[in-house]
């Protein structure tokens, strides 16, 4: 075992570690913004539709303010997403040069979706107070669809890397006779795509609701905070049990299509039946497991619904073709954290649903709102854990069973890559710092606008000089479009 590890270390290019760290950092940073890009347009339109249908100025105010957050997030996402696109070619030229013609269409789809989304966001922002209310709404309806299309392209590319197909290899080992349909719709694409999309909706819903839950805990019990909490939390609560089933389906797809990754997720060393489930724990290099909670036969039952199900172990392939013990432990912990948080979110959703069905009201317990306030952050953790499970569990392959990560990495010197990592980290700190500063500035202006007394104010309204948020000042009669266009105001502070 020690000799094998030494041989693998000796054959590893020195630039592999900094290249992987750079890619991991940029991906982990970008994924924090993806839930807003994929799901916030839909949640915003749900609130917008409610405001128009019920002629509710509070709902329209929330929709307009969320659209501002959506636009700023999109601008920041452009930066982080573009960096990732360049890194794919600069850090992994071996993969893109050899396999780009096979799975590159996914990135093309994502690029088209990106341009369409940019145009639709611009129209949506411009349309406030400039278009007829329902015309404005219907022009924005394609926006969530473009977000789903972008996710389609990215997941198509990633699922192909996990289960590559749709090509043949010539005498030199290069792909030929590419079947685009098969390359996009791989065996694991459906399970991975829907699991990812619903995860984005859950995360965005709980994150937005968490902002207003925090305001609720601070004593802001007005309708603004109640509605701002209820709509996104309801969306997330409905999807939570669905996501649990989708996650189970995705894990079972991995069991059938990527058995070695599944073995890493469950730290299964030897192929066997009646395999126990370990909650957390650490895999040692000799196959023993330290710590954790052992549940007899449960892993086989979860994989195939019966104890006699055979689960493939890590030792079924050579050490050079599987994750190391450390990598398997990382994958196992990421998977268990994701499953644990998902289970807790189901309890939170059931708590909410029980109270709503019994008395059509929110739970009265402060503990419920405390849990709701941290649910969004917990979802972000699960999103990070999901990508760790997907990417680290595939090691050492960048294209599963066809190309190793070490074969795809750039020839750039390791020192240059470490320097680039430092520069990117510094830039991202500034970018995300500016993003948070803008959000906090907007929140402050909105709160001032809501709490200001119109009769006592002598200066201009705090929102009159900004392109976002419903302005509190009444407009001239000729400037109004129609009732229900979001011009109404209400009391309550923005969280």
TrEMBL record:
What's its membrane topology? Multi-pass membrane protein
Give the residue spans that cross the bilayer: 28-47, 68-90, 102-125, 137-157, 193-215, 227-246, 330-355, 367-389, 417-440
Residue span of region Disordered = 451-495
Keyword annotations of the record? Cell membrane, Electron transport, Heme, Iron, Membrane, Metal-binding, Transmembrane, Transmembrane helix, Transport
Question: What is any Pfam family matched here?
Answer: Cyt_bd_oxida_I
Q: Give the location in the cell.
A: Cell membrane
Where is there biased composition of kind Gly residues?
Answer: 485-495
For whether the record's keyword set contains Repressor, the answer is no
The record's family statement is:
Belongs to the cytochrome ubiquinol oxidase subunit 1 family.
Which protein, by its recorded name, is this? Cytochrome ubiquinol oxidase subunit I
Which organism does this record belong to? Answer: Streptomyces osmaniensis
């Amino acid at each position: 075992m020690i000799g094998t590890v030494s041989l693998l270390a000796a054959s590893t290019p020195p630039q592999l570690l900094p290249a992987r760290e750079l890619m991991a950092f940029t991906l982990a940073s970008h994924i924090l913004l993806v839930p807003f890009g994929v799901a916030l347009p839909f949640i915003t339109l749900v609130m917008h539709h409610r405001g128009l249908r019920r002629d509710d100025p509070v709902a329209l105010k929330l929709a307009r303010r969320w659209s501002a957050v959506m636009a700023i997030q999109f601008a920041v996402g452009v930066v982080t997403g573009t960096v990732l696109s360049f890194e794919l070619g600069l850090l992994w030229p071996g993969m893109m040069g050899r396999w780009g013609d096979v799975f590159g269409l996914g990135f093309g789809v994502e690029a088209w979706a990106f341009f369409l989304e940019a145009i639709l966001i611009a129209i949506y922002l411009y349309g406030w107070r400039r278009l007829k209310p329902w015309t404005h709404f219907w022009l924005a309806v394609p926006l969530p669809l473009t977000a789903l299309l972008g996710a389609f392209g990215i997941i198509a590319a990633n699922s192909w890397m996990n289960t590559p197909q749709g090509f043949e290899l010539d005498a030199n080992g290069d792909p030929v006779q590419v079947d685009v349909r098969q390359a996009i719709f791989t065996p694991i694409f459906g399970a991975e795509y829907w699991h990812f999309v619903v995860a984005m909706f859950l995360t965005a819903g709980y994150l937005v609701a968490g902002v207003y839950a925090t305001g609720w805990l601070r004593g802001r019990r007005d309708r603004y905070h109640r509605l701002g909490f209820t709509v996104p939390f309801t969306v997330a609560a409905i999807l939570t049990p669905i996501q649990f089933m989708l996650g189970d389906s995705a894990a079972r797809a991995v069991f059938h299509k990527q058995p070695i990754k599944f073995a890493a997720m469950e730290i299964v060393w030897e192929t066997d039946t009646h395999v126990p489930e370990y909650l957390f724990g650490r895999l040692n290099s000799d196959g023993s497991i330290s710590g954790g909670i052992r549940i007899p036969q449960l892993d086989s039952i979860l994989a195939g619904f019966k104890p006699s199900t055979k689960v493939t172990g890590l030792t079924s392939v050579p050490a050079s073709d599987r994750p190391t013990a450390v990598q398997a432990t990382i994958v196992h912990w990421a998977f268990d954290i994701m499953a644990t948080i998902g289970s807790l979110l189901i309890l939170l959703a059931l708590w909410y649903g029980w109270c709503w069905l019994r008395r059509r009201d929110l739970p009265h317990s402060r503990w419920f709102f405390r849990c709701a306030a941290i649910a969004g952050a917990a979802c972000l953790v699960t999103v990070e854990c999901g990508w760790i499970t997907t990417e680290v569990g595939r090691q050492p392959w960048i294209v599963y069973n066809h190309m190793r990560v070490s074969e795809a990495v750039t020839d750039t010197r390791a020192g240059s890559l470490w320097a680039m990592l430092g520069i990117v980290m510094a830039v991202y700190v500034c970018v995300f710092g500016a993003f948070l500063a803008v959000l906090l500035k907007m929140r402050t202006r909105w709160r001032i606008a809501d709490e200001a007394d119109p009769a006592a104010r002598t200066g201009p309204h705090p929102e009159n000089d900004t392109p976002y948020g419903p302005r509190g000042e009444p407009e001239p009669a000729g400037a109004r479009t129609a009732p229900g266009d979001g011009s109404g105001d209400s009391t309550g502070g923005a969280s």
